[in-house]
Design brief:
five-stranded mixed β-sheet, 291 residues, Nucleotidyltransferase, domain 5, 2 domains, single chain, 12 strands, alpha/beta
């Protein structure tokens, strides 16, 4: 099949992954090789995050002269206004990231959601290469996702499709940054775990880890019944840090919800991309947006 975002022949892309806690950048070749990787921490950048990103990118641009820049950024996005408003980056509200980067770097820039970009990478380079439909998720500081159905990344009217972190999973639950309550992100993400335990997610006790996995599975199971897929690939520091038990519990929880025969064997499993996934996805965003 033609994989979503596949680039059969393309020049190397400068890939940028903007997350809630860190920003990574690298040159990515069409075969998935990554070179000259650099990183900055969002907290260290203070109020001038964009300036810090540009300072980090300039040496890469001077060394390689890429023809396109691909960006995976936390959302949501506003396509009509060409802006991003990451929930966990307070200094960016309706921030014109694509236009500002294009002006600064003088090359075409394409931007999409970071978890949506990861879904592209899972299909091109990861565990979903033989699949036509699947869900890709990130369970980390926040929770995001991207849906591929019938071989195509689902965009939605505003290119925000895939925000699985904002499925309602707990009645009367915690307030979420999106404005609702009881969202998966507000209950099971790393930030949520730290908020209600007072400790980093990596120090969470067994009941807390089990609860997070159960809620993730509940969301996956509901989506699999509605959208007709049987594979969910999960990346992110929380999911991977909790180990194999996370995926076993999430799969059991998903199957308790997904009872139709077509989705009864839904599987929640680790992403096969490792730490390179977000940058590979960002590069695919760049190539996907190139005529």
């Amino acid at each position: 099949m033609t994989r979503p975002g596949a680039a059969e022949s393309a020049a190397p892309c400068l890939a940028l992954d903007v997350g809630a806690t860190k920003v990574d950048a690298a040159m990515v070749s069409v075969d998935g090789s990554i070179e000259r990787r650099v990183r900055l921490l969002v907290a260290d950048a203070g109020d001038n995050l964009f300036g810090a990103i540009c300072a980090m990118l300039r040496p890469l641009m001077s060394d390689a002269s890429p023809e396109v820049v691909g960006v995976g950024c936390a959302g949501p996005m506003n396509v009509e206004r060409d802006t991003v408003s990451p929930l966990n980056i307070a200094q960016w509200r309706d921030f014109p990231l694509r236009a500002r980067l294009a002006d600064e770097l003088a090359v075409p820039v394409h931007v999409d959601g970071d978890a949506r970009a990861l879904a592209l990478a899972e299909g091109q380079f990861g565990a979903a290469r033989s699949l036509t439909s699947y869900l890709s998720m990130v369970v980390s500081t926040g929770i995001g996702g991207g849906l591929v159905l019938n071989g195509r990344l689902v965009d939605g009217d505003s290119r925000n499709a895939g925000h699985v972190g904002h499925l309602h999973v707990v009645d009367g639950g915690r307030a979420c940054a999106c404005g609702s309550t009881g969202c998966l992100e507000a209950e099971a993400s790393g930030a949520a775990i730290e908020a209600f335990t007072g400790r980093p997610a990596r120090e969470a006790d067994e009941p807390t880890r089990r609860r997070s996995a159960t809620l993730v599975g509940r969301a996956v199971g509901s989506l699999s019944a509605v959208l007709d897929f049987t594979h969910c690939f999960v990346a992110g520091s929380v999911a991977r840090g909790f180990g194999d038990a996370f995926f076993d519990i999430a799969t059991t929880s998903a199957r308790e919800v997904a009872r139709f025969s077509y989705c009864a064997h839904v599987q929640v499993q680790p992403s096969a991309l490792g730490d390179d996934g977000p940058l590979l996805g960002a590069a695919l965003v760049g190539w996907r947006g190139t005529p």
